[in-house]
Amino acid sequence: MRVRLLVPLILLLACTETGVTPVDDDDVAPVDDDDDDATDDDDAVDDDDAAPTCTDRFEPNDDADGAASIDPSSYPELWACPDEDDWFRLDLRVFDTFLFDVFFDGDHGDVDLFVYDDEGTMLRSATSTDSDEHLIFEAQETGTYYAVVSLVEDRGDEGAEYLLNLQIDPSHCVEDGWEPNPTFTQSPFMFPHPWWNMVTCVDDEDWFETARWAGPLLQLWAYFDPAEGDVNIAIHDGTTGEMLVESRGTGGEEYVEWLMDDGPPYSMRVWMESDSGRYYGNVYDLLMEQTYPDGCFRDAFEFNDGQPWAWPLANGTYPGLHACASDSDWFRVVAVAGDVLEFDVAEDTSEGEVTVGLFDSSVAPIGTVTSSPGAHSVVYTMPTSGSVFFEIAMGDEAGSTLGTPYTLELTGQSPVCYPDTWEPNNELIGAAGLALDPLVGMTVCGDDDWFNRLVVQDDTITVTVTNDPADGELALRLHDGGGNVLGESTGGGGTETVTHTVGATQFVFVEIEHVADVGGLPGVTYDLTATITP
What we know:
With 534 residues, the chain is mainly beta. It has 1 helix and 36 strands. The termini are far apart. Mean pLDDT is 83; it is low at 1-32 and 44-50.
């Protein structure tokens, strides 16, 4: 009796051991959970303890909660499997732009690629029916995004092997008004001046060049927010590209200097060492000066040492100017046809002598020069409206003080509106970078003035323009990069203010429209202030 009961008990224990499945257990979930190739579920030897054949190193990553975090790189030997997508997590900043590639064999399956935001909204897709998928995605705001690889059709044994390639798009760095200038051979000319609101990125250097002659000390400063990334600067030889001096600090200011000599222009480079901020790249202000270590006094019109930097001049007398041996003084006069211009210069001969000359825009000599000890005069009748250039150069040195003091007087110029130092900035394309320091004494002369400033997502920009209503009427507008109006003020009362909060990091463009002249002089003079509130 005991033997009859014992045998069934032993068989029952044997049949319930781990890894053994009763014959033909098709009614047990999951369907076909053995490891043979047949479509039934009747393998009683080694049922479901074998490793799955369709898997890769990122599994399980079948949904957003299990998404695998990845960085720009190439990921081979991945598998798209039936009934389960592959999710990859990307933490992006605004303007981050990525190139996605999925390479696979179309004979084994049709694989598609999607990009979702953190709320599950599909933003981009690549759904061709042949091999390989490609797409470019630019984040419109900082946040978490997901790349999803999905097997749409299984044409092989089980799943399709693929390679996922993810790389930063080097073209997505926000462009400032100097682009394209990413290489030594693409260096636009820059003259000594403060230049504001420029952008550099880890994969997009900025290069500039400046005139070169013996004597001055070339000085370069870069100012930036270190929380947005580390910016470095350097001066290079303009012919060979050899780096002469660099500054690679970790604060918000970089400074380099180099004693200039004769030769081709110097090149200046600005680049990012690292990027750590709220948006891709970093905004910086650049200040370039050329000073003279010889101790000669520089007057209020410096730096006007060449025709490109000639100081605008109007009718009047200008005392207290100073000529130095190592630099000439240049002035620009805008006049109308028929104006008889007269330039008179008187120097202190006990301290030295000066020479004078008048030139057209091509730097060809014009006018009649009359000189005597301590006095020089140039008279010229304008054949057409335009600009002429007046140079005062150091002659013989004398006295105990370096350089020669002189007084300059201009007469004969008709009333004109003088373009300010930010011209030409008459359109959205060509807008000048806007500083957060007040701009005083700006002018519009029958055309509009445009500026731009990069504003970070959710920050608020406020711009105010003031002018004398008796001088003329102005209008103020803010635009996005497409020219769409974000806000405007057209009161005409002498003060215009516009405030705007941006929904995504972008360049905001400021337009000052010359609506009307009211006073006796052409053009309108105005002051401009801008603030940004986080």
